[in-house]
Amino acid sequence: MALEQSLAALSLATVTAESATPTKTLVFKPKTAKTAAPVPVVVFALQSTQTPSPHIASAAGVKEPRLAKEDLVQEFFSTTPKEFSVANLNKDLAGKIKIVIDESIFKGDENLVLELSTESAKAALPATTIVEFLKSTGIELIPVDFSAEVAAPAAAAPQKSKKDALKKEKEAAKLDDAKLIGITVDKAKDFSTWYSQVVVKGEMLDYYDVSGCYILRPNSYAVWEEIQNWFNERIKKMGVQNSYFPMFVSSRVLEKEKDHIEGFAPEVAWVTRAGSSELDEHIAIRPTSETVMYPYYSKWIRSHRDLPLKLNQWNSVVRWEFKHPQPFLRTREFLWQEGHTAHLTREAAAEEVDQILDLYSGIYEELLAVPVVKGRKTENEKFAGGDYTTTVEGFIAATGRGIQGATSHHLGTNFSKMFNISVENPDGSDKPRVFAFQNSWGLSTRVIGVMVMTHSDNRGLVLPPRVAQTQAVVIPVGLTSKTTDEARKAINDGAVDIEQRLRAINVRATGDYRDIYSPGWKFADSELKGIPIRLEFGPKDLKEEQVTVVRRDNNAKYVVKLADLESRIPEILEEMQKGLLEKARKDFDEHRVIVEEWKDFVPALNAKNVIVAPWCGVPECEDDIKDSSAKKDNGEDEEVDDKSPSMGAKSLCIPNEQRELKPGQKCVRCDKVAVNWCMFGRSY
Amino acid sequence: MALEQSLAALSLATVTAESATPTKTLVFKPKTAKTAAPVPVVVFALQSTQTPSPHIASAAGVKEPRLAKEDLVQEFFSTTPKEFSVANLNKDLAGKIKIVIDESIFKGDENLVLELSTESAKAALPATTIVEFLKSTGIELIPVDFSAEVAAPAAAAPQKSKKDALKKEKEAAKLDDAKLIGITVDKAKDFSTWYSQVVVKGEMLDYYDVSGCYILRPNSYAVWEEIQNWFNERIKKMGVQNSYFPMFVSSRVLEKEKDHIEGFAPEVAWVTRAGSSELDEHIAIRPTSETVMYPYYSKWIRSHRDLPLKLNQWNSVVRWEFKHPQPFLRTREFLWQEGHTAHLTREAAAEEVDQILDLYSGIYEELLAVPVVKGRKTENEKFAGGDYTTTVEGFIAATGRGIQGATSHHLGTNFSKMFNISVENPDGSDKPRVFAFQNSWGLSTRVIGVMVMTHSDNRGLVLPPRVAQTQAVVIPVGLTSKTTDEARKAINDGAVDIEQRLRAINVRATGDYRDIYSPGWKFADSELKGIPIRLEFGPKDLKEEQVTVVRRDNNAKYVVKLADLESRIPEILEEMQKGLLEKARKDFDEHRVIVEEWKDFVPALNAKNVIVAPWCGVPECEDDIKDSSAKKDNGEDEEVDDKSPSMGAKSLCIPNEQRELKPGQKCVRCDKVAVNWCMFGRSY
């Protein structure tokens, strides 16, 4: 039908009537029993109308509507929340969704012209035309006077106060002095919104059209390149070689190793079509490369002289998780390195596992200034296909949660037996063939998320100098309308000179000479983007032959004589690098608490700590700890987020550094004797 | 049925009877009319039986059977030719294929035990059991006495002599002195087999389970890393930043830009399923990233101060071509870099197009020692979405074919208008908005194939020193059974010392101290892998305090005093680097011939030249040149390969360096006046 088409076309139109009244279109997901299909509620209102969720709940007869996540919007409307408008609605949605419509629109004022806008397009249409269209879709249409008092529905009443409290919290999280370009919420009060703002406004990353995928912008990719250079240099010294294996695995090969693939199967993305041809055999995109690589290890390793074989690749893998994605931490495609090595002896393999773990610890501590605890995973948490898993574990102080940093696995001969990676016994061909001892180890772009969460603050990103794409920005200051052209030129020239001298000694420096922005705006901009130090150069500095240096992390000011520029600036950058690590280490140390009695366990967790406790080492006890430390909910489908510490504590690792156990010391949870200290925590 | 299962299981079994007689299983594809489905012929014979194709043709009643390509084997038998044996046959194939069986097997000698072998497995079974199994499948079984004279079928007679000639050529291509580990065919006589052997035996690459995908082993990936380092350093100086965009594009976005995607659509791989869930919207794997990136360019570029935006990424792209794949040159997944930049003015964009082309030329000439001709593509050959395309064109002397090296496109405002990448006019907001001028430029791992084809020889790879993973190998020589332990130790220590001194000055040196191999074997091994120089160190060298250096490319010998090691070795490496380029440039120069008259055009092509000719610049004339220079075939489905120069000549580029045209000079093909000199050639 013509009207429907014309409305659908609007999403690409760019006509805007000057006098049109802005509107908003929002999608809410009501609370639904786990087994029921959700019925989203679309709210269409004037931009100026407040649309509190109790009104929506009451009008639509639903419980606790909350803003729908991107997945749901994609599922129902095949578009992103940012691109969604009522123009996306159609007859097919009748019975599947409800529309709550602002009475101010619905009443049918003939002169009212509405502006429909999405992130990329705007269009203007008479309100009557839009209402007529909405009616034509057959979708249930519920007019609401949002200015009226809402009657709290009996069932939702106890929840209402909780939601109100949450809303108040969100309000309270707003920063009073937030600048237009900057972060608008408080890290301590609304961590997840803060994080999303920091990574996007800091230009680390942008959200992408395909849910769960993100764009790594230069500000984050440069960190990844620093990590690559650092790690490549060191693994090459260990004799590891880089290579590249295909991203595709045939279903036949992938499914050969059932136990291994079981964990990944629900998340594997399948290519079934090329051009317009259906493929005879479906082809998977690698979730990890064991099954891609090991058949060739079997082919290449013919003799003990072919060992060790040590290959690494820098690649992307795909795990189509259906859990809520999070920038850097949980993404459907992510970049990583995966090392896969084969050795003649278990000892040689085990030695390498530890060497790699040390390198991972080095990436966190030396490059990213993030402290980690080295340890070994429990049987429950280790890589299913391997003998044991070592790990570096980090800590996000703002949420009190642990986070797995990177893992280095010893696979034993489990895979080599499966893939027949074997050599003649060096002691003689009459002896049994020797299966190779294998390792695999990986570190992903998740590290960047951990770094951001650790150091950044309410003014934006804080980047450790060693990995910052730009380490220093030079900003001319003190120029006023009264400044003579000559003085202005002298200051600008001086700033450019400083910048160039820094670049000459390989400090990654830039200058901000844009006329249209004030120094204050430039300071805020460089803070948002995490540039480690700014160098202010003004009339006084010119006269005194100095420059004023301000550190991003703690606002410390240094006055540096120009003569000392080449010696002092690298020092200040290194001081900052060390300062970040020290501060983060103090946070981690203070929030890694010894707990010996179960009664202290959950309170310590709730106080945003991770816990080191004596433990019996029994998997069932670990499960019990997790269950018993979860805050029990009402059993409905509640997502776990940062504000809801309902998640139980997992074992994070058995730290390599073990304090002595008292004689006969009991497990923190059960009556058995403890065998070691284990680190537990809520985690990402 | 039990027998079938037991035979199927054989493909993984490793039991071998000592007395078993080796067999071979080959798959042939007969010549078939284009519209007909092929009926492969499986030939199962004793290893020792000669199975000439005329016998097969005659017995199976087919025309011109030739060894089937990997695709066909995969299609029918779901395995690779190397892993295929009669154990892969089953009832489902009845009516779809034919089996030609060696009479020596079929006659049913009860004592005959056969060995079935594939690359990864061997098994032994009585001949009678296998024949019984083959009969049970219901597949047409045709016994042939290969020792008998074959009656040439009338229809195939003229072809037969052609095939015989080809067979003779293949025979003649065999190298007389081929070593077991080395290349067994002559580059000049059977280029495609030679190429495949060189890349696989040189450990550049391995064939992979998914057709058209290949494994880049460290020996080739290291070349790619050198290219990355070289190129990154230079583009960063130009202000280009690296980044990473997702590999997925939603169908909605991909199909938004119809003209652009038209060329790629038949080759796009589609993800339609994740785990066991069908995706609501199918998601493409990027064949290139214009549609991935430009929506975000539109978002990020808000003001002229956001220009230029210069991003590059190193990634893999997927083009699911159905043409015959070729290592490095045509692969379904390949690595490349793609740069995408947006500028305020056409001039700024055009300048960058040329700068990048210079860098591409630098990668070929300075790193890979491969000469290229810089030029511009004709309208027919340019990137469809752009204003113009510049290119570096290489030349494969062994086949006389041109090869496109890398391209740098100026897109004009075609994409910026489509994706609304625009800024307010710097001259005032009353002036029309300015659409960004865009470029894109890309270089892929194809470069490695060009390098291999250019320099390598019948002893294996020849790697230019600047990109070789290993630049020098030290090999102890002259040790005999009479050598004293003391002398042996002195020589080995001396070799290790040489190796370490070279590494200390960043020469990528290694040593080959394996006892079990002779120096001759080690020489051949290092030659196969393309190591630029070998350093032989023996008793005489020890005494004279010298080392004997041999260049891989021309066997030139140098005696270098140990005292001069640090100065001479880098010089020798550089001499070799220059020598390779000079030789290849001479080849290219001698085979880039000026042709002014059409009568000389095809003869020059057939003499393995590319041609520079005066040309009118009219697209239809270009089409005519291509058609008229193709050797007309009999119209049946004949694949173009290196031995069959039936392919017409395409325009390769209009070289930047133009000689003057004579007044009124005519186009080489038509009666119009020539507007410039254009380079034409058969090409990859």
Folded structure, characterized:
2 copies of one chain form a homodimer. With 684 residues, chain A is an alpha+beta fold. Chain A folds into 4 domains: 2-152, Alpha-Beta Complex (YbaK protein), CATH 3.90.960.10; 214-245 and 287-455, BirA Bifunctional Protein, domain 2 (2-Layer Sandwich); 472-588, 3-Layer(aba) Sandwich (Rossmann fold), CATH 3.40.50.800; 592-681, C-terminal domain of ProRS (Translation Initiation Factor IF3), CATH 3.30.110.30. Chain A contains 20 helices and 30 strands. In chain A, strands 10-14-15-21-18-17-16-29-30-28-27 form an 11-stranded mixed beta sheet, with helices on both faces. In chain A, strands 1, 2, 3, 4, 5, 6 and 7 form a 7-stranded mixed beta sheet that branches. Chain A has a 5-stranded mixed beta sheet with strand order 23-22-24-25-26, with helices on both faces. In chain A, a hairpin with a 5-residue loop joins strand 25 and strand 26. The two termini of chain A are 49 Å apart. In chain A, 44% of the residues are buried. At the A-B interface, strand 9, helix 8, strand 10, strand 11 and strand 12 of A face strand 9, helix 8, strand 10, strand 11 and strand 12 of B. Strand 12 of chain A pairs antiparallel with strand 12 of chain B.
Write the layout of secondary structure elements.
The structure is a homodimer of 684-residue chains.
Chain A lengths: L1 H9 L10 E9 L11 E6 L6 H8 L5 E2 L2 H8 L20 E5 H4 L6 E5 L4 E5 H10 L3 E5 L12 H17 L17 H11 L3 E3 L6 E3 L1 H20 L3 E2 L5 E3 H4 L3 H5 L6 E6 L2 E9 L4 H11 L8 E10 L14 E11 L2 H22 L5 E4 L11 E9 L4 E12 L1 H5 L3 E2 L10 E2 L1 E8 L1 H10 L16 E5 L8 H20 L4 E3 L7 H10 L4 E5 L1 H6 L1 E6 L5 E5 L3 H26 L1 E3 L6 H6 L3 E6 L3 H10 L21 E6 L20 E6 L3
Parallel strand pairs in A: 1-5, 2-4, 4-7, 10-14, 22-23, 22-24, 27-28
Antiparallel strand pairs in A: 1-2, 1-3, 5-6, 8-9, 11-13, 12-13, 14-15, 15-21, 16-17, 16-29, 17-18, 18-21, 19-20, 24-25, 25-26, 28-30, 29-30
